[in-house]
TrEMBL record:
Gene3D superfamilies: 3.30.1330.30. This is Ribosomal protein L7Ae/L30e/S12e/Gadd45. One of its GO terms (cellular component) is ribosome. The lineage of its organism: Bacteria, Bacillati, Bacillota, Clostridia, Lachnospirales. Residues 15-101 form the Ribosomal protein eL8/eL30/eS12/Gadd45 domain. It comes from the Bacteria. Keywords: Ribonucleoprotein, Ribosomal protein. Coiled coil: none annotated. It comes from Lachnoclostridium phytofermentans (strain ATCC 700394 / DSM 18823 / ISDg).
Amino acid sequence: MNDEMLLKAAATKKRVMSLLGLATKAGYVASGEFSTEKSVKEGKACVVIVAEDASENTKKMFRNMCTFYDVPIYIFGEKTDLGHAIGKEFRASLSINDQGMARSIEKCLNQESSK
């Protein structure tokens, strides 16, 4: 049973990373601390993703900001994985600025967290 759960988690992670790559190619991603913060404050961000291995200060800053601006936030993946998915070296934070793409990514992330 445990192996089955690990396989499902890996498949979900792969799906999210693929969707992030697609969103990047479509121009719906703002990555990096400054760009992510800017898109949240301008009301463009539909969802924010922060890497699990980001600093506690970064996680806290984005949690507070996303709560204030009413933007969903997910702590997911590692900096290198997020960066690789969007064609960069590493990224601690990114925002999805399209409602449809954000919904698809959220759906996958919610499946991951419900297990």
